[in-house]
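Here is one chain, start to finish.
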Amino acid sequence: MNSAANSKRIASNTLFLYVRMLFLMCVTLYTSRVVLGALGVEDYGIYNVVGGLTASFAFFSSSLANATQRFLSIEIGKGDSTGVARVYSASLIIYAAAIVVVLIATECVGYWILNHSLVIPAERIEAANWALHTTAIGLALTLLGSIYDSILIAYENMKAYAYLSIFEAMLRLIAAFVIVYADLDKLKLYALLYLVSILAVRVIMIAYCKRQYRDCRFLGAQPRSLARSILGFIGWNGLGTAVWMINEQGINILLNIFFGPIVNAARGVAAQAGAAVNNFSNSFFTAIRPQIIKSYAAEDHDYFYKLIYSGSKYSFFLIWIIGLPIILRSGDVLQLWLKEVPQYAGSMVEWIIIFYAINVLTNPLWSAVQAVGKLRNYVVVGSIIFLSAFPISYILLERGASPVAVFQVLAATRLVYLAVSTLLVKRIVDFSLRAYLREAIWPVVKVATLTGLILAMLDLFVAHNTIGLVIMTLFSIAITLVVIYIAGINNAERNAIISKIKIFAHNVTPYKGEN
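Its structure:
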């Protein structure tokens, strides 16, 4: 594999994904503000917890998408166009079956939980059920569309992926403005408009992929060996994502049971803010992930290991640059963002960002395991560790703990998960543990510790208002970048940065000609 060409492709794809991410972040945060104001705290909390019920079954979508990306990337890495068509055909059949299962499960299990377990005001039960049905259909459409998401990512077509995401965000922003002025039940209307936005984007995406990628053609039923391989991958991957969803949505239900929909609204706001920050690193990693799998398929092991080490380190740096000032000034950020800030939202935001900062370190390790295909031990051990967050959270809430405690538990269990998964991946992938600690973990520890101490002290001297927020944000970004340059990267990376700066400066310097 041509490492230089691949690095350029990563840079180009990252640029498209960052344009996408910045646009989505601005639109999503503003949309949340509009929707929260239009629905009110109670209805917003209801929509958040009902949406969470259907999202509980979204692990099917994530598992299938990960499997499709992995097998497509392997075949693309080998240069086998027929193999690509076979993977697409087998995946399409599996997706169709999964859609039926998800719809039945969502409507049956979700309906029972909504009407018999959750704390919902009686006068809003009908609207909540309406939201459940529309989000269930939306989940089915998302599931179907995820195969085409996988195609775009496997082929590293981040340009089309970014444009479609931006279009979907614009449709949701329009939906938010419609419910502000509509004289109808706003919760029902927003759920319906959200469904329409999903449908429109999925239709366009399917049409584009069918036209652009001729290898993605349906060949009918495929050999059972291929289906078993994909289903085996889906099964183990599904277990891991199911545990993730249990923690995400199960804890959301716990918060509803112990504190009611008002705290669900706080959790919804915090989740939006955390997801926006997490996208800073996810955009970068989405560009790297296909090449981790392709480099393994092409047996380019040096590049494979390099992507694991650098992917872990830079993913953390990207989330820390934007996340640290928000951790320090979460209250100011929420006051500026929202008209009405739900109680506990600020502390929840801080701990969700810390959780994501730890979690991004596990992403390259997980992709390496997916590339090799030996998921069982990694998933089983990791799931046991991470699933422990749910019973621990229940015990703490039962004993009167603050709702923020559940997010502290999530961060703690994710840290344990990172330590254990690193040891497991060493056995599966056979990479150098010493090199990984030196190239990825130690730089992260240095940067997080130094920037945290410096900015925590600086925060004591800056006022807590809008001007103070701007000052702290600018100082935080500048100081973090300096610390990353000094303590977070090696000499080769510094030299590469200096070289790029010199080339850029030379290209933008006007040519004055000869005297």
